[in-house]
Amino acid sequence: MDFSAINPILLLASLMVAATPILLAAVGELVVERAGVLNLGVEGMMITGAVCGFIVAVGTNSPWLGFIGAAVGGALLSLLFGFLTQFLLSNQVATGLALTLFGLGLSALMGQGYIGIKAPSFPDWNIPLLGDIPVIGPIVFQHDPMVYVGLLIVAGTWAFLKYARAGLILRAVGENHEAAHALGYHVVRVRMLAIMFGGACAGLGGAYLSLVRVPQWTEGMTAGAGWIALAIVVFASWRPWRLLLGAYLFGGVTVLQLNLQAAGFAIPVEYLSMSPYLATIAVLVIMRTGRAPGSLGQSFHASR
Q: For this UniProt entry, which segments traverse the membrane (predicted)?
C-alpha cells in the first residue's frame, strides 16, 4: 500500500464533484416529497437526462445546451408520472418503479448511436483570487460551473420553502392536501409543478454524469445514483442543508474508495466498490430521521 499516492486536497476537491449528480437529483426529489408525492422513478429520470443531455450536447457542441436538454427530458418523463398519479390516480410506488424501468429502456434505445463518442469539453472555472487561496482555493473554487449551480439550487430551495408564499403553499399541500384544498389551493397543480421540478433536477444530475464526470454515454451509467438520492432525502429529514451534508458524505466515501484502490489497499475491489452504498444504508439505520410530510404518497381526490 502506498498512502502517499492519496492527495488530501485532490480527494476533498473530488468529493464535491462526486456529490454533485446525487445532490442535484436529491434536491429535486426533496421538493417533490415536500409536496406529498413519492416518486421512485428518480433513477429513470436521471438516466433519461443523461442520454438527452449527451445527444443535445454532441449535436450542438454546447454542454450548456446539453444540460438544458437534460432538464427538459427529465421534466417530460416526470410529466408521465404526474399524469398517471395525479389524474389517473395510479399507485405512486408502482408507477415510480415502472418509470425507472421505462427510463432505463428508453435511454438504452436513444443512446445506441452515441456509444464511444466523446462529449464536448466542459472546462473548470478557476475563480480569480479565490481560486489562488492555498488549500481552500483548489478544494472549493476550481470546479466546473455545475458544482456551483447545484449549491445555488440547494440554497434557492431552502429559501423558497422557508420564506416564499408559494413554498409555504407547497408545504401545506404536502402536510395535509385536504386542508390545503379547503383553503382554495390547487393541489394537483402544485404537485405537478413540483414533479416537473424534480424531473428537471434529476435530468441535470444525469447529464452531469454523461457530460462532466465520464464524459461519454454508457448504458446504465447512473449505477443506482437515483436510489441513493432517494435515501439521502430521507436521511436529510426533508431539509435542504442536511441534504447537502448527505450528498457530500456519499461523495466522500465514493472518492475515498477510488483512492484506496489506487493506493493498492489490501481489500478486494468489489468490497471497496460496495462501500458508498453500505455507508448510505448504515447512516439511514443509525441516524434518526425526522417526520415525513403528512400526505406523502397519498393520492388526492378532488371530489371528496
A: 6-25, 37-58, 64-84, 96-115, 135-161, 192-211, 217-236, 243-260
